[in-house]
Specification:
- The protein contains 4 helices and 7 strands.
- It is an alpha/beta fold.
- It has one domain.
- Strands 1, 2, 3, 4, 5, 6 and 7 form a 7-stranded mixed beta sheet that branches.
- The radius of gyration is 14 Å and the shape is globular.
Length: 133
């Protein structure tokens, strides 16, 4: 993590406290034209991978996307290879203007669909622990 309390990473505490999802890891595309907006994350939770590994379905490691008011990044959801089967993905909600992070959602994307047709599985809000109680 960042070594200090961050208003953009409280969702990580909630994820780690969840017995079903505490072992989940994320995949981020490593380079190329797949750009991510800047975001904070515990580096032990994420692996930078190539496009083939990003698309591959794995049990405890899922693709990470950043959902913003301008769209979802990276835009590989339009790739036929990415959409050929149902996928579980994570979407970190972030405002590019204010930098505010709302939280992280885990979603099921149905094959041949897009991010408008996603099914929420669980959501980890970014509120602090004292705000949750």
């Amino acid at each position: 993590m960042l070594g200090r309390e961050s208003h953009t990473t409280n969702w990580i505490k909630h994820l780690k406290q969840n017995p079903e999802y505490c072992h989940l890891r994320f995949k981020k595309l490593d380079k190329g034209f797949y750009a991510y907006p800047p975001f904070d994350i515990d580096k032990t939770l994420i692996d930078e991978v190539d496009i083939e590994t990003f698309i591959k379905i794995e049990e405890n490691r899922i693709p990470l996307f950043i959902g913003t008011q301008f769209g979802v990044y990276p835009s590989v959801d339009k790739s036929p290879k990415f959409l050929c089967q149902d996928k579980i993905v994570a979407i970190l909600g972030k405002s590019l203007l204010s930098g505010q992070v709302s939280g992280l959602g885990i979603f099921k994307l149905l094959s041949n669909s897009n991010f408008e047709k996603k099914i929420e599985i669980i959501y980890f809000g970014n509120e602090s622990v004292h705000e949750r109680q």
